[in-house]
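User: I've been trying to design a sequence by hand for this structure and keep getting stuck. Would you show me what you'd pick, starting by listing the structure so we're on the same page?

Assistant: Good idea, let's start from the same input. This is the structure you sent:
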């Protein structure tokens, strides 16, 4: 199993992320049409609780594994890699089983008192078994990321998504006659089955890895001073990175878990009924936000690849390489995220009509789209801080942003003249605060030029793309999907031409792309 370069590994994850995002939209669109706004609201009410539990269970362990494995491999210390995996497995399995039982026992109380809709008990109980599955998968995901071999994780994502599409729709349709709450629970069970399939692929990939360390563990090893010392050192190093990452993600997921509670309570104060607020929340979290987060698979791939790459470069004292990796990530995030944001703003109405048959989602999407670039930059900046062993900075930034966001959700969402729009504005404020603070923290440790000229050129290219997309869609004839396709094709072509004309896309950038880079570079200016 050969080690992959930063760009190669990133592009593998980008490709897999694109496939899983497209396939994920297939099942989300089909699910939203099948169970409606209210069913999606119940589905999304249970989902933040799940994210919170998974964060507590696994926390920053996968990130810590990725960082420590990459450092150990650089030193060719395979025994340390074995210790890292054994300690991580013991920790996450015990924690995941405990919190799974806690979720099953506490589901009635959470649904009745916190989520204000007793029907949410069924999705909560349906999704609980996924916790130990994700916990085990996260360990081997971190292992392969640390080895800088992204293919097993990328393929496992595709396997999980394909399995999930069939199981979610099939079980939800099967249970729909009993009520939307049972259909939402069936969708959750389908997700569990899909995640299990992905975990099986990761375990098979680990078994086929010739460099894998043996995981057979004998309890008497704990009483051997040499082994105990190694395990103790491993635990301390894991916790040094995992604790701040866990705290950061716990606060973020806690705010995400509390979000449906705050939203429902604030909308109730604004005079909106329980059923209406559930439907509005379903439009926001089940329709608008997944569309907005679609391009984030690229920045997620960057984040996954950045942690081991930055860790390795920092451990070897290659500070210029750290700045270079950061510049690569920032440029790719902006070049891809900018046009995605403008398209979702300009074509919000036809896109939501085509995908969801619900144009009321378009207003929510248009309020969030201008701030999407902050979302796409946030992941890579956080990954750089983690790779530099500055996870505490990311933790402080995330906690502050989550607190401000949660407070604003209640303050703005409870205003009758704002309602759900106030919730969206609060989410935007949270994105901006965390991303700006991450950027300032990174600048303290790794100064790099801001490239103001390139940013201005990129703004011109994105503006031209949005103008062309709007113009073509208005004047195009034919069915809705044909007009959208023509608008997207034309505007993307204009954007790519603008990138070349404004010298934002050069031969050196494209030549680094694996397999096809040299062929594509021949068509670009030097």
């Amino acid at each position: 199993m050969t080690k992959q370069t930063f760009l190669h590994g990133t592009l593998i994850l980008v490709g897999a992320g694109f496939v899983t995002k497209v396939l994920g939209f297939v099942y989300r669109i089909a699910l939203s049409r099948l169970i409606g706004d209210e069913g999606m609201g119940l589905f999304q009410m249970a989902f933040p609780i799940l994210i919170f539990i998974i964060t507590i269970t696994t926390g920053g362990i996968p990130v810590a594994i990725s960082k420590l494995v990459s450092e150990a491999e650089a030193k060719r210390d395979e025994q340390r890699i074995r210790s890292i995996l054994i300690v991580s497995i013991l920790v996450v399995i015990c924690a995941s089983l405990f919190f799974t039982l806690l979720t099953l026992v506490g589901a009635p109380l959470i649904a009745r008192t916190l989520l204000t809709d007793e029907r949410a008990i069924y999705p909560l109980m349906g999704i609980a078994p996924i916790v130990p599955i994700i916990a085990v998968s996260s360990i081997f995901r971190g292992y392969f990321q640390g080895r800088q071999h992204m293919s097993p994780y990328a393929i496992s994502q595709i396997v999980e998504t394909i399995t999930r599409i069939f199981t979610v729709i099939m079980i939800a349709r099967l249970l729909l006659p009993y009520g939307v709450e049972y259909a939402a629970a069936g969708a959750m069970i389908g997700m569990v089955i899909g995640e299990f399939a992905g975990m099986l692929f990761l375990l098979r990939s680990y078994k086929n890895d010739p460099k894998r360390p043996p995981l057979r563990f004998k309890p008497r090893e704990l009483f051997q001073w040499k082994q105990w010392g190694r395990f103790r050192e491993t635990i301390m190093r894991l916790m040094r990175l995992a604790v701040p990452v866990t705290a950061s993600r716990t606060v973020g997921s806690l705010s995400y878990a509390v979000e449906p509670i705050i939203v429902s309570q604030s909308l109730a104060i604004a005079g909106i009924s329980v059923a209406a607020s559930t439907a509005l929340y379903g439009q926001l979290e089940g329709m608008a936000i997944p569309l907005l987060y679609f391009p984030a698979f690229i920045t997620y791939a960057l984040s996954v690849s950045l942690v081991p790459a930055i860790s390795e470069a920092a451990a070897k004292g290659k500070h210029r390489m750290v700045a270079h990796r950061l510049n690569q990530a920032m440029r790719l995030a902006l070049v891809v995220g900018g046009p995605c944001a403008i398209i979702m703003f300009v074509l919000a109405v036809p896109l939501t009509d085509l995908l969801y048959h619900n144009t009321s989602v378009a207003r929510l999407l248009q309020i969030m789209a201008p701030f999407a670039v902050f979302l796409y930059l946030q992941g890579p900046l956080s990954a750089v801080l983690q790779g530099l062993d500055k996870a505490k900075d990311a933790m402080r930034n995330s906690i502050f942003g989550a607190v401000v966001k949660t407070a604003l959700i209640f303050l703005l969402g409870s205003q009758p003249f704002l309602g759900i729009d106030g919730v969206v504005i609060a989410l935007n404020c949270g994105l901006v605060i965390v991303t700006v603070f991450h950027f300032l923290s990174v600048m303290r440790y790794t100064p790099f030029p801001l490239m103001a000229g390139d940013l201005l050129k990129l703004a011109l290219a994105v503006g031209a793309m949005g103008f062309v997309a709007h113009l073509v869609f208005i004047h195009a004839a034919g069915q809705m999907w044909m007009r959208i396709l023509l608008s997207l094709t034309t505007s993307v072509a204009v954007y790519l031409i603008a990138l070349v004309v404004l010298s934002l896309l050069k031969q050196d950038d494209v030549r680094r792309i694996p397999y096809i880079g040299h062929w594509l570079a021949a068509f670009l200016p030097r």
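That's my pick for every position. To get oriented when you compare it with your attempt: The chain has a mean pLDDT of 79. Residues 17 and 297 are 5 Å apart (CA to CA).
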